[in-house]
Amino acid sequence: EAMFKDIATIVSEKCVNADTKRPIPVSIIEKAMKECHIAVKPNKNSKQQALDTIGKLKEVLSLQRAEMRIKVVTPVKMLNKIRKLLTKLEVTIESEEETEGETSIPIL
């Protein structure tokens, strides 16, 4: 039972509602896990089971993996190379800030 809650908590932390982009409460994830008849395997760790569970829950819930926000700090002289790389990776650049010869770029 504790591992079941742990798996639901991990799923809740790593996923959001695909329509609203808001977090999904643990209780709703637990209910969906019971509906899908997801069994806890005591010999596998919680994180691995949570990742497996996400795929199964996508059939029942409208969920997707949450996007991570990363801040890239680079010297100004490297900025063009970094921009090209980020464009190639198709990430969303939120803004750019220049301070003391460095540029900070928060991305999703």
Report on this structure.
The chain is α+β, with helices and mostly antiparallel strands. 42% of the residues lie in helices and 19% in strands. It has four helices and five strands. The strands form two sheets. It has a three-stranded antiparallel β-sheet, with no helix packed on it. Strands 1-2 form a two-stranded antiparallel ribbon. Strand 4 and strand 5 (102-107) form a beta hairpin. Helix 1 (2-14) crosses helix 2. The longest helix has 13 residues, at 2-14. The model has no long low-confidence stretch (mean pLDDT 89).
- The count of β-strands is 5
Distance between the termini: 35 Å
Strand order of the largest sheet: 3-5-4
Supply the helix-strand structural class: alpha+beta
Helix count? 4
- Determine the fraction of residues in helical runs and give it as a percent range: 40-55%
Secondary-structure element sequence?
A: HEHHEEHEE
Low-confidence stretches at least 5 residues in length (pLDDT < 50)?
Answer: none
Radius of gyration computed on alpha carbons: 19 Å
Mean pLDDT: 89
Biggest β-sheet, characterized? 3 strands, antiparallel
Estimate the strand proportion.
15-25%
Overall 3D form: elongated
